[in-house]
Structure formats: structure tokens, C-alpha cells
């Protein structure tokens, strides 16, 4: 609902349904607000074309309002219809957006900027919490919030103006699409090929195939130009050109590999263009017999002087370089015009003898078809011409120096391709319509009367060049590279054009290479190259990059073996084109909502075709150079992938990962579960992953590359604080898992109680078939000091797990760092804590991580802790702190180390479906546990020991599970010794009700007040089971005291029958004085099968 105090606004019968209305709001005090959002024109530099903003937004205006709106935008004056998205003229920060008090801001571009945006300041909108909470609470936040919201809402105009004023003061030089892109691309595309080789190409291929060659090359560059335009208009483009476009689309792996070779190719291209210029100068010196030393050294001398001059222009600043480019383009255009004028100037006998006859239909017809010679063919000629069509990225390479890259790159690049293509085709057709393929240059080679011409156009025009068929001639399209100089109206202008073409291309490459290289180094993908990221001066000029480019160019000029390196450089450029096309295709194929290019004239399949075409052209030009290019790119790709730079650019690769994962997850839902494919998919109650490293390690051991592992944490307490703490730690803890190479997910919930949180996790965790099927939980070692509610919650989790028909793995003797959680979190925030827990053999003195934490723990005054907190602290106080720390450290890392020769003892007492045997088997196929043998312990009868062994051995062999020994335990059900039973009774004594020693009334009252206590009746009813647990511990100590790990069938307590404390006492007595134990209970569904 729109609100306006002017009643006439809605009375227009011709009003469109969708339009922007100017809203007039009256204020009681009629004071001028501090800020007016419309005080400055809107800026679209990060989202759209500035010049096309009005065309694309299509704002409709009410009658009589257009003039008012224009005045509002241009002058920023306050009128009766001024837009007031908010008002901050009072101390309160309510925002007047729609005529009522609200903190909600209106849409504004400044909210969407990146931090550190050069085109404007990033502003922060009010958080959802601030809007959602009661307004009275927000007012109490006082000045800090007022200033933050005010700065985020009402000072955009000022901040943008200040930013622009500083930009103007600093003297930034920004180029428009003509000078920044069009001129550069035209100069780079028009090279010496236009003046020296094009006549030879059309002579070999003929007009027909020659035009096809030009159009085929143009097809490659045009498709690449369309892809470049699409990527460049999909968001704000910074400096870096091709590297920036590819890296932000495909990620740092592709961008980092192609960026380095692209920058190197541009640096070497400087040498190639300069040598081309030097060769032309040396030819002129040779004609006038004024060589300085010899041809090779003269090329080196002139090339060195030229590069120094070009470097001086570049270092002087982009403004001087742009002026030089404009002058060179002017010279080049005059040279091209000079050629076309020369074709219509009447020829003379000397030029006729060299094959130039002005426009002749017979010459056009004769030269229309191909006449390949000297082993040349269509593709070889195409390979020679194609480098002339490159250079389309010259404008994109200086994207950081453009006023509006989104508008300039598409417009300038595509127009440059069109103009240069027309020029190439025009020159090719014109020169092939005027000059014959072969001419002797002898004015006396005229036609003898009565001579048969045999269809020769030269013969029909009065000249006999027939001897060129039997001996080499020096003139004509096929023989003379200076045809354009001969045809032109004034020959020296063509030489000036050659100079202009080579120098402009060299200058463009000399600027492009450092710019691209600087952008690459700023991203710090190759850390050793970060030295070259620094910029100098008002335009952040990469002076260090200029020097490096100069050194590379000089090296190749002095080597002077450019014929060998030229094909590789051409392939480097083509590899860049291929990846740009593939980037466009990949971004479209990934269907990311963030792919919204303003440039619509592209097609994903055309881009893919362009990428394949570029790869094909690479092999056409030079197959071995293509292989070298691919090898270098692959090496750099692997290097960057291995280094894993910490960048996140929202690449299409990430989007495709998501699409593939989603498709795979959906496809998995159609696959029925089968016992052969069962794997433990664990939900591990680790809390914060770094708190219980041993629990995480053992779980990760049997789930790594095999099943799902989710580390879960439950936050209890005030919901608002819990959610805040949970959200703030999610990314950090998942990053910890990733950094420490733990293939696991982190999940957290906020709940009223620990049991409710676990119940939510058990029901809601996972996706489709990728759901947890096993609960991994640590044993509650402090149960004797915990409250009854805490014990009830813990046992309740086990009961809930069984109710959901999920297996459970309980870990005992697995240390954790609960008593120093605050200290641990503090060190984790500093990124120094716990690093020792995730690196093998990394516990030397002086290291940070757990060692540092434990040493620091030694200095803590533990007695300061509240006695209520944990009674285990008193235990710590009674121990030698250093000894305790060392034991804790060793225990927490015991499953990170490679287990030596030893045993995993499996006490498979109850058939739970096979999980008790499957988990230890999975452990033994891991590298760290492969030296451990499986020993099987199971119950049996005294008179059937051998038979029971054979039965068990047969069963395990059918399951294809190797074992070292089988032991049949026959005396499980005998009474334990008195010392063990006494220890058990002492353990449960504080939790017994002893109702038989009291009168009935008192006993009933105690039952009501302490229903969790163990009654005498219950203890008597489960006395045999209690005996069994105590006796079982004696047998475990007798047989498995030296085992590396014990896997034991977990006893099950009937729900509502066995009290919580009795059940906890059973679990405690089972694991007394033993190595680490996994108590396992499957859901009594088969997880093993002997069928194929």
C-alpha cells in the first residue's frame, strides 16, 4: 500500500499499474532532514550500465512529475515532492519510509557493495534481529545503534559524494568505452599482418577461401567477445582482464593457471611486436645501406631502444599511454585509407609490370579460387592469419582503469571486432581485385601479337608473366610482401602504418601484462609473487610489474628466436579465449541464480562451441605448442588446487558442485537399501569438534571415505543467546573440521534440554538416503556427581535412540576437555589452539595447540573454580598437574597415531545384526589399524567349547572376516568375587532407597520425592544381571587388559523397569580398569550377509 499525503496522486485515470510514484510526506516540525537520499544521482557502477540506466529501469511518471523528478536528480534540491526514505533529524532513529515509524530501510545499492568498494562505501542495513525484536528494546541500545543505523541509512549521499570528491582529488584516470576499449582493441587486432601478410594469404587461398579464413577467425573472436561481454556484465568488474573474468567464474584454479600464462604471453608479445618493428626499420636501413652493425644486432639495438621508450610512456601513466594510442590509431587509419585511395589511382607501367592493374573483373575472377603452393593448405594459411585476429582482450585487460567496465567491454570489444573484420575483408577483396598472383616486374614483358593468353588476366591486360610458372618471380600477391606499399597512393604511409600497428600492439601488451599480473598477485594465489601486487601513484600503477615485463621482453629480444616461441604465445592467448568461453557456458549450465548478465546476446551452447573451436584452432596452428600449453596449464592447475588458496568468489564451479550433489542425492532416493551396501553413518555427539578429539577420531576412522559423519552439538539455555552463539560458531567449527582434514559435517541445535536437542538431531539430521543410522556417544563419566535430571536425560537419549530403531556406539575411556572449555574456545578464536591435535608427530616443545593449552593449564589456579562446577576438578587438584596434562594429551591423541601390533578384542555376546563385528572389521582395513588382529570372545557351554568355536569360525568365514583367535567364555554367569561386588555396592550406595529398612509411609514418601533412586526390590530383581556385569568386567580384565581396543556388546535396560542410576552403574563397572572400549548395540537388523 502506497501512502501519499497528496490526494490527487491516485486520481489519474491513465495511470499504469506498475510505476514509481514520487511520495510527499509532511512532517509536524517541517524541518529539513539532515539527509536526502536523492541528493545525488543514483550510481549503477556495480550493477548496470551507467549510460543505459534510464533505458533499462523504465520509470513511469505521473503527469507533471517528470520535470520535478529530473530537477530532483540533477540539483538535489528539496522540493515539495522530495523523497524521504528516512528521517534522522531527531535523536531517535525511527525511519520515515512509508509515513509510519519503521527501522526497515528502502532498497539501496550501498547495501550490496563489497567491503572496501572503490566506487562507494558499503553500508549496513539493520539486522533481522533488530527489526524483529521489540522497538523499545532497540531504543535502549542508545547511541551506538543510532549512529550505526544512521550511518547505514542516511549518509549514503554524503559518503558517496566524499568518495567521489576524494577520487577526483586523487586524480584517478578512468577511460570511456572508446578510448579505453575500442581504440585498444582495434590497434591490437590490426597488426603487421594487415600490411605484410594479408595479400599473400588471399593469393594462396583466393578471395573465396580468404574471406572464409577471415570469417572463421572472426567467429572465434566474436564468440569469445560475446562470452566476455556476458561475464563482464554479470557484476562489477575490477582490474585483471581475462584473469579476473575467468577466476571469478571458474575459480582460482583455472584463473590462477591461465592468469600466469596470459600475463607471460603478453610480456613475450611485447618482444614479438617490437622485433617486428625493428625488422621493418632494419629493412629501411638496409635499403639505404646504413646498417649500424649487422642485421641481427641492429634488430637487438633498435628493439632495446624501442622497449625503453614504450616503457617510459607506460610508466608515465595510463593517460599518456592512452594519448599515444590515439595518435597511433590516427596514423593507422590514414595508412589504411591511403591503401584504398591507391587502388583507384590510375596505375603506371612500372606498377603494371609488378602486377597492379587497378580494379579488373578478370583479376577478381582469376583470384577468386585457391592456388595453394609450397606445401601450404587451408589450415596452414589459417594458422598464419589467425594471430592477426587476436587482441580482443586489450580493452578488458585494463578493466580496472575503465569508468564503467560493464558497458565499455561489450560495446567496445564487439564494435572493434566488427570494424576490424570489415577492414580485413575489404583489404583482402580490394588487393585481390587489383593485383595478379605472379608478376616479373619487367616492363618489357608485354604480350606478343598473336600470342594465346589461355585465360590469363595479365595476358588479357597486355603483359606476359608466363615464365613465372617455371622460375621464381619477385612480384605479385604470392611473391611480394610489400604489395600494399606498391598499391597505396603514398608508399611511406604504409610503412608508417606498419610502425603504428607494431608499436600500438607492443604498447597495449606492455600495459596489459603488468595489469593482469598485478591483479593475479593481489589475490595472493601464488604467494611468492605477492611482491608484485603493490601499486604506485594515483592510478595504482604496477611499476614492479612493468619492470618485470621489461626484463622478459628484453630477454626475448636479445634471444631473437621468436619464430619458435610465437606459436606457443598464440596458443596461450587461445587457451585464454577457450576458458572465457567455457566460463560463460559453465556459469549458464550451473544455473546459479547469481548468473544474471545484463548482456543478453549470448548462448551457452554457442559459448561451448567457441571453447571447443579455440581448442581445435590451437592444434591447427601448432600441435606441439598446443600440447605444451595444456601441460603448463595442467601443472599450474594442479599446483593451485594443491595449495588451496583461501578465496571464495562464488564461482560457477561451486554452483555446479551443488547441482551435482543435489542430483546425486535425489538419484540416491530411488535406490533401495541393501544389506551389502550398509555402512555406518554416524551422528557423533562431540559437542564442539575440538573438545572431544578422541571421540571424533575413532568415529572418523570408520566413516572416512565410507560413510556419513555428523559432529553434533546441543546448546541449552536462553533461546536467544543460544541461537546467537550457535550461529556465530557454525562456520568456524565446520572450517576447523575441513582444515584438520576431518571428512565430517558439523550440526548444532538449540533446545530446552540436551535430550530434546539430541532427539531433534536424531530425527531431522541428514538428507534423503544420506541420513545417520548410528549414534556415537561418549560415556558420562561424571554421572555420580551430576544431578538426577542430567542422568535421566543421558539415559533417556539411549532410550530415545532405541525407540528410533537406531544402533548406538558408546565410547568409554575417551578423554575430553570439558573443564577448560572457556580457555579452549579462547585459544581457538586466536587460531592457535588445538593445532597439535590434528597433526601427527607434531607435539614438540614450543608448539601451539593443545600442548600450549595444557602448559597454560598448569599455571591456572584451579582452586578458584567453584566447587559446584565439577568435582573432577578436585581430582585434578590432587594430581600432579603436569602428569595429568601429559596423560590427557596422550589419551586425546591415541587414535591419531598408527596403532602398533596388537589386538582388537570383540566381545560379541549378543547377536545385534552384526554391527558389533562390522565396526572393528572396518577399523582393521584402515592404515592406522591394519597391524591389529581381531580376537573374538563369545559365550558358550563348557561341554561344547570346540563345537562353539567351529560354529563361530564358520560364521566369520562366511562373512569373509579374518580373525586371529576365537575364545569361548563359559563362566560368565558365575558370581563375581567379593572385592568386585563390594566395589559395585559401594558405587550404587549413594543412590539406593533402602525402603526395606523404613516403614511403609516413609518409604512411599521417599519414592515420591526421589523416584530415581534404586529400590531394594529392583536391585533384587536384577541381581543376576548385576552379577553378570561385574563378572564380565573381571573377565575383560583377565583377557583384554592389553588390547588396543575393546568392542563390547552394550547391555540394554528395559525402558521404565531399570532405573537410570542402576543402568549407569552397570556401564561403569563394565569398563573399570580397562583400555578404551566401544560398547556397541545394533538395531537387530542384519548389516552383514554371506550372500553375493
From TrEMBL:
<feature type="transmembrane region" description="Helical">
    <location>
        <begin position="258"/>
        <end position="279"/>
    </location>
</feature>
<dbReference type="InterPro" id="IPR002443">
    <property type="entry name" value="SLC12A1/SLC12A2"/>
</dbReference>
<keyword id="KW-1003">Cell membrane</keyword>
<feature type="transmembrane region" description="Helical">
    <location>
        <begin position="299"/>
        <end position="319"/>
    </location>
</feature>
<feature type="transmembrane region" description="Helical">
    <location>
        <begin position="207"/>
        <end position="237"/>
    </location>
</feature>
<keyword id="KW-0597">Phosphoprotein</keyword>
<keyword id="KW-0769">Symport</keyword>
<dbReference type="GO" id="GO:0016324">
    <property type="term" value="C:apical plasma membrane"/>
</dbReference>
<keyword id="KW-0325">Glycoprotein</keyword>
<keyword id="KW-0633">Potassium transport</keyword>
<feature type="domain" description="Amino acid permease N-terminal">
    <location>
        <begin position="87"/>
        <end position="153"/>
    </location>
</feature>
<dbReference type="GO" id="GO:0006884">
    <property type="term" value="P:cell volume homeostasis"/>
</dbReference>
<feature type="transmembrane region" description="Helical">
    <location>
        <begin position="601"/>
        <end position="625"/>
    </location>
</feature>
<feature type="transmembrane region" description="Helical">
    <location>
        <begin position="378"/>
        <end position="400"/>
    </location>
</feature>
<dbReference type="GO" id="GO:0055075">
    <property type="term" value="P:potassium ion homeostasis"/>
</dbReference>
<dbReference type="InterPro" id="IPR004841">
    <property type="entry name" value="AA-permease/SLC12A_dom"/>
</dbReference>
<feature type="region of interest" description="Disordered">
    <location>
        <begin position="27"/>
        <end position="48"/>
    </location>
</feature>
<dbReference type="InterPro" id="IPR013612">
    <property type="entry name" value="AA_permease_N"/>
</dbReference>
<dbReference type="InterPro" id="IPR002445">
    <property type="entry name" value="Slc12a1"/>
</dbReference>
<dbReference type="InterPro" id="IPR004842">
    <property type="entry name" value="SLC12A_fam"/>
</dbReference>
<feature type="transmembrane region" description="Helical">
    <location>
        <begin position="412"/>
        <end position="436"/>
    </location>
</feature>
<keyword id="KW-0739">Sodium transport</keyword>
<keyword id="KW-0406">Ion transport</keyword>
<feature type="transmembrane region" description="Helical">
    <location>
        <begin position="326"/>
        <end position="345"/>
    </location>
</feature>
<keyword id="KW-0868">Chloride</keyword>
<dbReference type="Pfam" id="PF08403">
    <property type="entry name" value="AA_permease_N"/>
</dbReference>
<keyword id="KW-0472">Membrane</keyword>
<dbReference type="InterPro" id="IPR018491">
    <property type="entry name" value="SLC12_C"/>
</dbReference>
<feature type="coiled-coil region">
    <location>
        <begin position="817"/>
        <end position="844"/>
    </location>
</feature>
<dbReference type="GO" id="GO:0055078">
    <property type="term" value="P:sodium ion homeostasis"/>
</dbReference>
<feature type="transmembrane region" description="Helical">
    <location>
        <begin position="568"/>
        <end position="589"/>
    </location>
</feature>
<keyword id="KW-0915">Sodium</keyword>
<protein>
    <submittedName>
        <fullName>Solute carrier family 12 member 1</fullName>
    </submittedName>
</protein>
<dbReference type="Pfam" id="PF03522">
    <property type="entry name" value="SLC12"/>
</dbReference>
<keyword id="KW-1133">Transmembrane helix</keyword>
<feature type="domain" description="Amino acid permease/ SLC12A">
    <location>
        <begin position="180"/>
        <end position="683"/>
    </location>
</feature>
<dbReference type="Pfam" id="PF00324">
    <property type="entry name" value="AA_permease"/>
</dbReference>
<keyword id="KW-0630">Potassium</keyword>
<dbReference type="GO" id="GO:0055064">
    <property type="term" value="P:chloride ion homeostasis"/>
</dbReference>
<keyword id="KW-0812">Transmembrane</keyword>
<feature type="domain" description="SLC12A transporter C-terminal">
    <location>
        <begin position="692"/>
        <end position="1092"/>
    </location>
</feature>
<dbReference type="GO" id="GO:1990573">
    <property type="term" value="P:potassium ion import across plasma membrane"/>
</dbReference>
Amino acid at each position: 500500500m502506497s501512502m501519499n499525503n497528496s490526494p490527487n496522486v491516485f486520481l489519474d485515470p491513465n495511470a499504469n499499474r506498475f510505476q514509481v510514484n514520487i511520495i510527499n510526506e509532511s512532517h509536524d516540525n517541517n524541518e529539513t532532514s539532515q539527509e536526502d537520499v536523492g541528493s545525488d544521482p543514483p550510481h549503477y557502477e556495480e550493477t548496470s550500465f551507467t549510460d543505459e540506466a534510464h533505458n533499462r529501469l523504465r520509470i513511469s511518471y505521473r503527469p507533471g512529475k517528470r520535470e520535478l523528478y529530473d530537477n530532483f536528480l540533477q540539483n538535489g534540491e528539496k522540493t515539495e515532492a522530495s523523497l524521504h526514505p528516512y528521517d534522522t533529524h531527531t535523536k531517535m532513529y525511527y525511519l520515515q519510509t512509508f509515513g509510519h515509524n519503521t527501522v526497515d530501510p528502502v532498497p539501496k545499492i550501498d547495501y550490496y557493495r563489497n567491503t572496501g568498494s572503490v566506487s562507494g562505501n558499503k553500508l549496513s542495513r539493520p539486522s533481522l534481529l533488530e527489526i524483529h525484536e521489540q522497538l523499545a528494546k532497540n531504543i535502549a541500545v542508545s547511541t551506538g545503534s543510532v549512529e550505526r543505523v544512521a550511518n547505514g541509512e542516511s549518509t549514503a549521499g554524503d559518503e558517496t559524494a566524499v568518495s567521489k570528491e576524494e577520487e577526483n582529488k586523487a586524480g584517478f584516470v578512468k577511460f570511456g568505452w572508446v578510448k579505453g576499449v575500442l581504440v585498444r582493441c582495434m590497434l591490437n587486432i590490426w597488426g603487421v599482418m594487415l600490411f605484410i601478410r594479408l595479400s599473400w594469404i588471399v593469393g594462396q587461398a583466393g578471395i573465396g577461401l580468404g574471406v572464409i579464413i577471415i570469417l572463421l577467425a572472426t567467429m572465434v573472436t566474436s564468440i569469445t567477445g560475446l562470452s566476455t561481454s556476458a561475464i563482464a556484465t554479470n557484476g562489477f568488474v575490477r582490474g585483471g582482464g581475462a584473469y579476473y573474468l575467468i577466476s571469478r567464474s571458474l575459480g582460482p584454479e583455472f584463473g590462477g593457471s591461465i592468469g600466469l600464462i596470459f600475463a607471460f604471453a603478453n610480456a613475450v608479445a611485447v618482444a614479438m611486436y617490437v622485433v617486428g618493428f625493428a625488422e621493418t626499420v632494419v629493412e629501411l636501413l638496409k635499403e639505404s645501406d646504413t646498417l649500424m652493425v649487422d642485421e641481427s644486432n641492429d634488430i637487438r639495438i633498435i628493439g632495446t631502444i624501442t622497449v625503453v621508450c614504450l616503457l617510459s610512456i607506460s610508466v608515465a601513466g595510463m593517460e599518456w599511454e592512452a594519448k599515444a594510442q590515439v595518435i597511433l590509431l590516427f596514423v593507422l587509419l590514414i595508412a589504411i585509407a591511403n591503401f584504398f585511395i591507391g587502388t583507384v589511382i590510375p596505375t603506371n607501367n612500372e606498377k603494371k609490370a609488378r602486377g597492379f592493374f587497378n580494379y579488373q573483373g578478370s583479376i577478381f575472377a582469376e583470384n577468386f579460387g585457391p592456388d595453394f603452393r609450397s606445401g601450404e593448405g587451408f589450415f596452414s594459411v589459417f594458422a598464419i592469419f589467425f594471430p592477426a585476429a587476436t587482441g580482443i582482450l586489450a580493452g578488458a585487460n585494463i578493466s580496472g582503469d575503465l569508468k564503467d567496465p560493464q558497458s565499455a567491454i561489450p560495446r567496445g570489444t564487439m564494435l572493434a571486432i566488427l570494424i576490424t573484420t570489415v577492414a580485413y575483408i575489404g583489404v583482402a577483396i580490394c588487393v585481390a581485385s587489383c593485383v595478379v598472383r605472379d608478376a616479373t616486374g619487367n616492363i618489357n614483358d608485354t604480350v606478343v601479337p598473336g600470342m594465346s593468353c589461355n585465360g590469363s588476366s595479365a595476358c588479357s591486360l597486355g603483359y606476359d608473366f608466363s615464365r613465372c610458372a617455371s622460375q621464381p618471380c619477385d612480384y605479385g600477391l604470392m611473391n611480394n610482401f610489400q604489395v600494399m606499399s606498391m598499391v597505396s597512393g603514398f608508399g611511406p604511409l604504409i610503412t608508417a602504418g606498419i610502425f603504428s600497428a607494431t608499436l600500438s600492439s607492443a604498447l597495449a601488451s606492455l600495459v596489459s601484462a603488468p595489469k593482469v599480473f598485478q591483479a593475479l598477485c593481489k589475490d595472493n594465489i601464488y604467494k611468492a609473487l605477492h611482491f608484485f601486487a603493490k601499486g604506485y601513484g594515483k592510478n595504482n600503477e604496477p611499476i614492479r610489474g612493468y619492470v618485470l615485463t621489461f626484463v622478459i621482453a628484453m630477454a626475448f629480444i636479445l634471444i631473437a628466436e621468436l619464430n619458435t616461441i610465437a606459436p606457443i604465445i598464440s596458443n596461450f592467448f587461445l587457451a585464454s579465449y577457450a576458458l572465457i568461453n567455457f566460463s560463460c557456458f559453465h556459469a549458464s549450465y550451473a544455473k546459479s541464480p547469481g548468473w544474471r548478465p545484463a548482456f543478453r546476446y549470448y548462448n551457452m551452447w554457442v559459448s561451448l562451441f567457441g571453447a571447443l573451436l579455440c581448442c581445435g584452432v590451437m592444434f591447427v596452428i601448432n600441435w606441439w605448442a598446443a600440447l605444451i600449453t595444456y601441460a603448463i596449464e595442467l601443472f599450474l592447475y594442479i599446483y593451485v588446487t594443491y595449495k588451496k588458496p583461501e578465496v571464495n568468489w562464488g564461482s560457477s564451479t561451486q554452483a555446479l558442485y551443488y547441482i551435482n550433489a543435489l542430483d546425486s542425492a535425489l538419484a540416491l532416493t530411488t535406490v533401495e537399501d541393501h544389506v551389502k551396501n550398509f555402512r555406518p553413518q554416524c551422528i557423533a555427539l562431540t559437542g564442539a569438534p575440538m573438545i572431544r578429539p578422541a571421540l571424533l577420531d575413532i568415529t572418523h576412522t570408520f566413516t572416512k571415505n565410507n560413510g556419513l559423519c555428523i559432529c553434533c552439538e546441543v546448546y541449552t539455555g536462553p533461546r536467544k543467546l543460544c541461537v546467537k552463539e550457535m550461529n556465530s560458531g557454525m562456520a568456524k567449527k565446520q572450517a576447523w573440521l575441513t582444515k584438520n582434514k576431518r571428512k565430517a559435517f558439523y550440526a548444532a541445535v538449540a533446545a530446552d534440554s540436551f535430550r530434546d536437542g539430541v532427539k531433534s538431531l536424531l530425527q531431522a539430521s541428514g538428507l534423503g538416503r544420506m541420513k545417520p543410522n548410528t549414534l556415537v556417544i561418549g560415556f558420562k563419566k561424571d554421572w555420580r556427581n551430576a544431578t538426577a535430571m542430567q542422568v535421566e536425560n543421558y539415559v533417556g537419549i539411549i532410550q530415545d535412540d532405541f525407540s528410533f530403531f537406531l544402533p548406538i556406539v558408546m565410547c568409554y575411556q575417551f578423554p575430553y576437555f570439558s573443564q577448560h572449555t572457556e580457555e579452549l574456545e579462547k585459544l581457538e578464536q586466536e587460531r592457535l589452539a588445538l593445532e597439535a591435535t590434528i597433526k601427527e608427530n607434531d607435539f614438540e616443545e614450543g608448539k601451539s595447540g593443545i600442548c600450549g593449552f595444557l602448559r597454560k593449564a598448569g599455571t591456572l589456579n584451579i582452586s578458584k573454580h567453584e566447587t559446584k562446577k565439577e568435582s573432577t576438578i578436585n581430582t585434578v587438584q590432587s594430581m600432579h598437574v603436569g602428569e595429568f596434562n601429559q596423560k590427557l594429551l596422550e589419551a586425546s591423541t591415541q587414535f591419531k597415531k598408527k596403532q602398533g601390533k596388537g589386538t582388537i578384542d570383540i566381545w560379541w555376546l549378543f547377536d545385534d545384526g552384526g554391527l558389533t563385528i562390522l565396526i572393528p572389521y572396518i577399523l582393521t582395513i584402515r592404515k592406522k589399524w591394519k597391524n591389529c588382529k581381531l580376537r573374538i570372545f563369545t559365550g558358550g557351554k563348557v561341554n561344547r567349547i570346540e563345537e562353539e568355536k567351529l560354529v563361530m569360525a564358520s560364521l566369520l568365514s562366511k562373512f569373509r572376516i579374518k580373525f586371529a583367535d576365537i575364545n569361548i567364555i563359559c563362566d560368565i554367569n558365575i558370581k563375581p568375587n567379593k572385592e568386585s561386588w563390594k566395589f559395585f555396592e559401594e558405587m550404587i550406595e549413594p543412590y539406593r532407597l533402602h525402603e526395606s529398612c523404613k516403614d511403609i509411609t516413609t518409604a512411599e514418601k521417599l519414592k515420591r520425592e526421589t523416584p530415581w533412586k534404586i529400590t531394594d526390590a529392583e536391585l533384587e530383581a536384577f541381581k543376576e544381571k548385576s552379577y553378570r556385569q561385574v563378572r564380565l568386567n573381571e573377565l575383560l580384565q583377565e583377557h583384554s587388559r592389553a588390547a588396543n581396543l575393546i568392542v563390547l556388546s552394550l547391555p540394554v535396560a528395559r525402558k521404565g523397569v531399570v532405573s537410570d542410576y542402576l543402568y549407569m552403574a552397570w556401564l561403569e563397572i563394565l569398563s573399570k580398569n580397562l583400555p578404551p572400549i566401544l560398547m556397541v548395540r545394533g538395531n537387530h537388523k542384519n548389516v552383514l550377509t554371506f550372500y553375493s
